[in-house]
Amino acid sequence: MNARLSEATALAGRIDALDWHAIEEALNQEGWAQINGLLDAERCHALAAGYADAAQFRSRIVMARYAFGRGEYQYYAYPLPEPIASLRSLLYPRLAPLANRWNEAMGVAARYPAAHADWLARCHAAGQRRPTPLLLQYGPGDYNCLHQDLYGELVFPLQVAILLSEPGRDFEGGEFVLTEQRPRMQSRPMVVPLGQGDAVVFAVNQRPVQGTRGTYRVQLRHGVSKLRSGQRHTLGMIFHDAT
Question: Considering Cα of 152, then 25, then 218, then 113, what sign does the dihedral take?
């Protein structure tokens, strides 16, 4: 077995061993769930170092040009490198059943197939053919404004971010933040305490919340607070492709 297959097999075992019931409970209660140690330090370092390899990417965005914040990111090109391709195909089928239950609860007609390849085929048929996994890079004073990663009409309602740098060693500040907007209420801020290799699964746009008068939709946005020092890299895993 070559190294690439061995890594993919190990990653599949790690994902299978996660407590998916607890992850779903957290997503239902809070709109996000943390997965500790999804990637090891060696893989995190390798992915972060890959930012300098322009051949891996299809485009580069400098956030300040578009008032997105400060810092920059690059979108990976197809074919996606490992372990990004495996992460996308392994995590999606674990999240698709919950995504379907959320849509049913919110009265949204869209349903998601069990396999990620089938979902991508649907995206591509609708003209959404550009890959969306991305690698973000922040330096001192950089931040990411609150936003949603939608990219087209077909949107998978959950996504994953993995912190590749080590807080306190590689950088200071730069917390991953979420805000939740419930009807007729002020926004609720949430800070996710990620360590190196930890992942956060969170709602892209809306999630259902059960109220006294039935189910209503809650809007979520995410971003990154200002870095005080150092450099921070994050892998963003979005399951729909872009127009």
Answer: positive
Measure the CA–CA gap between 192 and 143, rounded to whole angstroms.
15
| Dmax (CA) of the chain | 56
- Cα–Cα distance measured from residue 8 to residue 13, given in angstroms and rounded to the nearest whole number: 9
Question: Mean pLDDT, consecutive 10-residue segments, the chain of 243 residues?
Answer: 72 96 97 97 97 98 97 98 96 98 96 98 98 98 97 97 98 97 85 98 95 88 98 98 96
All domains in the chain, ordered by first residue? 3-238 (2.60.120.620)
In whole angstroms, give the CA distance from residue 124 to residue 32.
Answer: 28
For 61, the 3-state DSSP assignment is strand
* Partners of 236 in the β-ladder: 134, 161
Strand segments (E) across 88-175: 134-138, 143-147, 158-163, 171-173
d(Cα 126, Cα 171) in Å, to the nearest integer?
Answer: 40
pTM across the whole model: 0.95
